[in-house]
Amino acid sequence: MKSSTWFGQLIIAILLVAAGAILWRSSEYERRLAAAERDLVTLKYEDAAEAAAQPAGRLANLMPMSPAAADAKALASTAGYWHGDYDKAIENPDAKLLAANAQFRKIREQGGSWQAVVGRMDSLVKQYAEILRDDPTNAEAAFNYEYIVRLRAVFAARKLPVPPFDARGSGLTVHGFAGAPPEESEMKKFKMIVPMRPDERLEAEKAGKGTTKVRKG
Question: What is the pLDDT averaged over residues 24-47?
Answer without folding.
Answer: 80
